[in-house]
Hints:
The protein is an alpha+beta fold. It is built from five helices and 18 strands.
Amino acid sequence: MIIFCEEGSQALDRCGNGGSVVLPPYFSDADGDSLDYDVYDDPEIIANSDLQHDELCADLISIDIYGRVTYDPVGMSFHTTDIDLWSCEGMKFMAKDGSSSAYTMNIDFTVRAVSFSVERIDGISEITAGDTAIFTGQGRPGVEVVARSSITGLRLNNTIVGEDGIWMMNVQSNKLESGLNEVTFEYGGDSTGQSISVQVGASAQESALGWVLWAVLALVVLAGLGAVFMFFFVEFEDEPEIGDVEAQETVEEDPYAWGKASVEAEAQVATPVQPVAEPQPTYPGWKWDPETNQWIPDQ
């Protein structure tokens, strides 16, 4: 049998309850006498193994009145810290009554070091509605593994490590928050300090890219609408008739026309010249007044 022991732990239950074998089903007595059970020191095994180690195994294995054999490797830790040396292999047990005895076949108590591990195996980079994140790992059989959300602290799921030292757990997407989640794990009631990221929906980078694409699309649409508006609603200047263009081409414009027109206008509005009186004969004591056009006394 295989006994899993927590590597690096100093807890007294780091190997659980050890390994047990119930002997009575392997023996029977025709007379119906009660049987006594004990560890059998097989001379062949002793001759080909570490005697001191075998003696330690025999001392650490207990058998109760019901014939249950139990080996707890924690007792071996007081003699060596190397878990690889905690195994007790090739052990034999005997049952005896007042007149005879019988022996079991070799029984191996193999100790394996184990520590908590976790990995995600669903292979989905971004889970959506209806998807499931799947986690698995190793641990000591019988220990509870709990998954929690680092955002809300809520328990997402739990499971028990199997007899083979393997555990597996599913977490539904509806138990997680939208965006990036950190799923943390507890092992045997204690935090492991390990976490795994789970992305629910699109990531922030992809969302930003999506917004950029939408913005570009909006600009393209607005540009298109502006072009339609210019085409249908802006009034363009009418093109001149062909005959008018030809007439304008045949008549040459005088660049000094404005000056000539000004002179002609001034000539038209000029003050008329007063007629000059004809010369008159002279008379003594009188003179001709051209302003009044008559004779006035000469003083």
